[in-house]
């Protein structure tokens, strides 16, 4: 259904892109609000501000983050969908929107993909005094004692929980999920011995790793992290668990497709700006991030919908 709808919008594979027309000559301009579902100062808010700096230098238009938090992201989607569909507002999208689509809470056909900009990778970590200092020992214990160990994740039904659910299904090494409102709370819990394992991206815990407060066990990516060369990937262990948190932007489906292409051309230049590269490296996002445009982003979204639908089915949520 998603693929057919996007094909109708002229974004499917093999569709010729229309040339930039007069409707996009002066686009973008002024202040463009970017709606997102997370709180001010969070990762998505910082992402919008980081890419917004070179975006303004290149285009003259400002990207203004608009936080509409709570409600599993539904209020943010409603806010965006009630706005004019002329491309003057953007929506920051990520795995949460895919999850909500798979659950029937929103309709991704209302979103016209523009660019996937960031793509992160997460890991499992334990405290230095943990009994399990490598992933093989952890798996062996959990296969004999499913659910015996607690895994701290951020959010009750978001991306982290989906990753953990996929891990449990793929490995049979079942961890019991303990959701926290903030990643800092989950990290404090694992360091305090209240939970056994932490799931988090590399960037937010980089300082704790460098000070040896956390021990990384496994990375969920196709390749090992250059900064953690001794940490195996789940794929190396035989488990197809490579989901990562990604961030991108979309405009309304009814906006002219050439506007999506115009925006993408600006982002293409913005990601190479020194100011953005610096922030990307500080956050440990340079290892997996690859900018993709409307056509490739649409195909990526279709695949994500399939993956998350299967995960949700395996968890009994669909």
Q: Which descriptors would you attach to this protein?
A:
318 residues; alpha/beta; five-stranded mixed beta sheet
In short:
By secondary structure, the chain is an alpha/beta fold. It has helices spanning 2-8, 43-59, 74-81, 95-102, 135-144, 159-171, 183-191, 206-210, 257-270, 274-282, 294-314, and strands spanning 31-36, 62-67, 89-93, 111-119, 122-126, 150-154, 176-180, 197-201, 215-220, 246-252. Strand 6, helix 6 (159-171) and strand 7 (176-180) form a beta-alpha-beta unit.
Number of strands: 10
Q: Count helical runs.
A: 11
Distance between the ends = 17 Å
SSE string, helices as H and strands as E: HEHEHEHEEHEHEHEHEEHHH
What structural class is derived from the secondary structure elements? Answer: alpha/beta
Sheet with most strands: 5 strands, mixed
Task: Assign an overall shape.
Answer: globular
Strands of the largest sheet, in order across it? 2-1-3-10-4
User: What is the radius of gyration?
Assistant: 20 Å
Percent range of helical residues: 25-40%
Strand content: 15-25%
How much is the average pLDDT? 91
pLDDT < 50 stretches: 1-22
